[in-house]
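pinned: reference chain
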Amino acid sequence: MTVVTDEKGRKLTLHDLGDPLLTLDVLEAAGRDARGNPVTHLVTNQGWMGMATVACHVEDIDGVPEPRPSNVVQIRALIGKLGREGMKAVAAAINAEIGDSVGLDTAKN
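pinned: its structure tokens
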């Protein structure tokens, strides 16, 4: 378990940073809208997928569990909750652990 602190002072607990199943879960969630309909154009967008992958690594914020998103709307909501500060802290932790293997540099900026 990895815990990072963002610039707002929030403690973000992250899922296993090297878990390949997380990537599959993100691909599945990014490929569905809120009704479960396919939205494949986002899955092929490297920048969007990089940001979704960063957000989906968050297990909890300040001890409050964050359910893993299961569709595009939930991914967007989590990214909004994390904001720039949270996304930057999580991306830095992921890059430190596994490098930029999934285009996470996009999410750091």
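why pinned: The beta strands are 2-5, 11-14, 58-61, 64-65. The chain has a mean pLDDT of 87.
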